[in-house]
Amino acid sequence: MVGVSDGPAGFQAIREANLGIVLRTIRQTAPCSRAVVAASTGLTKATVSSLVADLIDRGLVCETGLVTERRVGRPGMLLTIDGSTLVAIGLEVNVDYIAVSAVDLLEREVLSRHVEFDASSAGPEACAARLREVLLEVAADPLLRDRPLVGASTAVPALIDAPAGTVTNAPNLGWRDFPLRERLTALLAGSPLEGLPLLVDNDANLGAVAEYRGGHLARTLDLVYLTGEVGIGAGVLMNGELLRGASGFAGEVGHIPLLGNGPLCACGRRGCLESLAGMDTILRRAVPELVPEGPVRGSGLGELVAETARRAEAGDAAALAALRTAGTWLGRAVATLVNLLNPSAVVLGGYFVPLAPWLLPPCRAAAAAHSFAPDGGGCRIEPSALGLSAAARGGAMALIDALDTGALPLPPATAA
Amino acid sequence: MVGVSDGPAGFQAIREANLGIVLRTIRQTAPCSRAVVAASTGLTKATVSSLVADLIDRGLVCETGLVTERRVGRPGMLLTIDGSTLVAIGLEVNVDYIAVSAVDLLEREVLSRHVEFDASSAGPEACAARLREVLLEVAADPLLRDRPLVGASTAVPALIDAPAGTVTNAPNLGWRDFPLRERLTALLAGSPLEGLPLLVDNDANLGAVAEYRGGHLARTLDLVYLTGEVGIGAGVLMNGELLRGASGFAGEVGHIPLLGNGPLCACGRRGCLESLAGMDTILRRAVPELVPEGPVRGSGLGELVAETARRAEAGDAAALAALRTAGTWLGRAVATLVNLLNPSAVVLGGYFVPLAPWLLPPCRAAAAAHSFAPDGGGCRIEPSALGLSAAARGGAMALIDALDTGALPLPPATAA
DNA sequence: TCCATTAGTTTGATGACTGAACGAATTAGT
DNA sequence: ACTAATTCGTTCAGTCATCAAACTAATGGA
């Protein structure tokens, strides 16, 4: 867990690891005194003092006052994560918008933006340029001005080579093999944000991180986040770490085969989960007369989903039937996840959220019916509480997480 | 990867981590000189010298001679993993036998035993007593005598709480909630093996480790091992680490739902993988007149599988059909694994191995047809080359692995 | 023979943690 | 009010593993 990151361990490594441990401990048990931190980490009081002093210098931790309880002995100085200085920025590129979210160390959302942008027709290069603009703009915003940045992350609905920061294949955007981080780094050269740590990842993965850090299931070490956008993707967090697989394809839950001779899927096969419980299928059955011929994409989607919810609310038979069958298939897919991964929670995100009241009951029933473990291995199935821009926030939180786990890119030098 | 294991990092921690790094480097590039190790780890020559001296003292590494190549400069002293001292012992409990395997640091099998024992009717306590006997016997064997032990592991076909060393539920043995490690530790107290690090894990997990370290797919970081015993289980190794899930249920691939109204499975549901491609189903279709009424278990299984292979070889229609359909269903399950986990290899173990010539072609075809990634994400599907006692060897190798990764329980103190 | 080159060891310095002792701040008891 | 007991945090010397650089060792080539 601690993970002095790869490579030989020297003095810096040990220091960084311990800084991470102390930071995490303070986050978990704040507000608390140095003495408590020492006791619960096993480090010496002396070491903790030194480490805390360092963290205070860097603006990660602050002293908030003395212990109020009336106990024998000198009262301790209370420590808390300092939410007033550092900030992490998360960007999310989607088919027709760029979402921005800035999060402080206390995981509070400091700023949130929604920028209209047609990423699919603009192409990757233009999008990178726009991302640069947005980033510079946001960083200069009065809310963030003069606050040091941890880094910036970008969520893309695509297959990503995260270590390299490359977008391998983004079908909905029409991008292939675009080295996004490399381009962004180049574009930011010379600007005030030069050298900022940049992170690129898949929207489902970052959605999972957002749930892990910010949702009401926070701190659940083994969870799966299901995106309900045009497709269905999964972000899998096992033991607090993202599962990526050998080539980054892990979590392509949308195309697991569920029904032998099922309906034709966009991928060319039959009976994929996406063809049974994808938005497209739900909408075509729930509000058939409103759905155009071609594939449903972009901003129209939200409207159609809302209409589906209205009709279900009103008791419309077609809408209810569509949601019931979709929920059941989703439940079978969840059962598969449960049998293979045994997560403690599966979170439904994206457009599944507004439809959750009708999807969840059949989904839970089917999941329970097809899980091997008696009670589904104790797995909860819940709608996300984070809204549509979960991936943007998740990206920002992933950066905060990197600080805590000691895999921190670089906690900024003394800001004072 | 290095992973100064949890808890605060001190001097010992950093030392152990670096010892692990050097050990692993030597294993990967042996035979090699200290200078090469220094260059490829990033550590100083001085540090490497110190670490290597330590490893030699502990009997993990030995010098084998000078560099033979004729090059300018002083020739280096070649280092290799020392396979002649330390040994790890792996035990495997199964329905009707206990398998033993001892492996040296070079991953060579030093000793292998097969002990008849009816674990299901003897009960857990008697089995633990027998394991103790076997362990003491093996440790006293001339082949192992005077060689220091890394530890002993026990593979059980069951749901395991590995950190605790407890067998949660072993349906085929009829055990529930048996604290195996605790009992073994107690039973070994007073014997020469007192204090020996003990490890308990699931047979599929340890099979995966065996493939990772010893199979012809060695060093594949992301692989899945499928056991073909009475049931079908999966050991999942992601990024070189075992996937366990929230409560140890991960890898219950035998009961993922594949067919809506499929045949009744032993678990009470319909259409599970096990009911479509389990040994029981294959045998009932391939050699119907030889299979008794009740569930097939124990030693009879091997015979029936061999007969099935013979008939398939001879072109028997029923046998071929049974294997073809089972292979196809297996392939669909593999496709699900590939879509979710994106492993670089799936290994078929247990009784799947003798049947592989007939199972593999339809399996590969179905897997390719139902994977989202173009070429199955580059996933290879191969039969295991390790035979039936893979789990025993895997357990021993897991201990060796623990040494390499620096998560080593305790490399023994100076043996000299 | 002498030099260039590479291998491995020795030596002193640095940095980070530890342990014990100390000063600080507060409550409990007389 | 004053002392004892406690608990908090800091200071200071001590330990230990790494690092950098100098040094010895062994070989090939001029």
Please name the CATH architecture of the largest domain in chain A: 2-Layer Sandwich
H/E order of the elements of chain A? HHHEEEEEHHEEEEHEHEEEHHHHEHEH
Number of helices of chain A: 13
Q: What share of the residues of chain A lie within helices?
A: 40-55%
Protein name (chains A, B): Putative NBD/HSP70 family sugar kinase
Keywords (chains A, B): Kinase, Transferase
InterPro entries (chains A, B): ATPase_NBD (IPR043129), ROK (IPR000600), WH-like_DNA-bd_sf (IPR036388), WH_DNA-bd_sf (IPR036390)
GO molecular function, one term (chains A, B): kinase activity
Notable characteristics:
homodimer; 416 residues; Arc Repressor Mutant, subunit A; Nucleotidyltransferase, domain 5; five-stranded mixed β-sheet; 13 helices; 15 strands; globular; DNA-binding; kinase (chains A, B)
Structure, described:
The structure is a homodimer of 416-residue chains. Chain A has 416 residues and is α/β, with parallel strands linked by helices. Chain A has 3 domains: 71 residues, Arc Repressor Mutant, subunit A (Orthogonal Bundle), CATH 1.10.10; 133 residues, ATPase, nucleotide binding domain (Nucleotidyltransferase, domain 5), CATH 3.30.420.40; 170 residues, Nucleotidyltransferase, domain 5 (2-Layer Sandwich), CATH 3.30.420. Helices cover 40% and strands 20% of the residues of chain A. In chain A, the strands form 4 sheets. Chain A has a 5-stranded mixed beta sheet, sandwiched between helices. In chain A, helix 5 crosses helix 6 and helix 7 crosses helix 13. Chain A is globular. The two termini of chain A are 31 Å apart. At the A-B interface, helix 1, strand 12 and helix 11 of A face helix 1, strand 12 and helix 11 of B. Chain B binds a DNA duplex (30 and 30 nucleotides) through helix 1, helix 2 and helix 3.
